[in-house]
Amino acid sequence: MATSVRARLPDRRDALLFVGAAVAVNLIGAIGVPFTATESAWFAGLELPWYYPPSWAFGVVWPVLYALLGIAAALVYRRGRDAVGVADAPEVARDARTALGLFVVQLGLNVAWSPAFWGLERADIGLAVLIALVPLVVATIAAFDRVDRRAALLLVPYLAWVCFATALNYGIWALN
């Protein structure tokens, strides 16, 4: 990372950026909610793995993770924005664009899980989505780390939860 583009303390405009990004990512994540049907006959008929958490946990965990994702993306965006026009820092702006591109792709795949698993009632397709998502999240963390280490660290709980979700989805697929 170029030494001329340093992390700076957030100001009011940055605070609005962070809040707006957290809200935006939560709204994007909510696209899958209409597909989620925990009371459906299909889901009620499934055998769940012993480690399946209580249903309320999903409603707590996902909004927090989506908020962290939004803040992380905002940090990367801000660092890239601050690098524009800095003579010895064009790689920071380029790395930020690449990182945000990966972020959008992985978020799109994240949202695709609900229609695959719930909408199609296909645990196998849901599992395939998650298996593709995990390396994309890892790549996004690595790309964020090249721009802002704090942003990368904010994605680590998300990676852990996606890995857990993959294990859950696998358990459901294997038992049914």
Write a structural description.
This protein has 176 residues and is mostly helical. The protein has a single domain (12-175), classed as Ferritin, CATH 1.20.1260. 75% of the residues lie in helices and 0% in strands. The chain contains seven helices and no strands. The radius of gyration is 18 Å and the shape is elongated. The termini are far apart. The mean pLDDT is 92.
Set out the fold topology.
Elements: H1 12-29, H2 41-44, H3 55-83, H4 90-119, H5 123-147, H6 149-154, H7 156-175
Helix pairs in contact: 1-3, 3-4, 4-5, 5-7
Residue share in β-strands: under 5%
Query: What share of residues is helical?
Result: over 70%
Shape: elongated
User: Per CATH, what is the topology?
Assistant: Ferritin
Low-confidence stretches: none
Please give the radius of gyration in angstroms: 18 Å
**CATH class annotation:** Mainly Alpha
The CATH fourth-level homologous superfamily: TspO/MBR protein
CATH architectural grouping: Up-down Bundle
N-to-C SSE series? HHHHHHH
DSSP summary: helix tally: 7
Tally of strands: 0
Tally of distinct domains: 1
CA distance, first residue to last residue: 48 Å
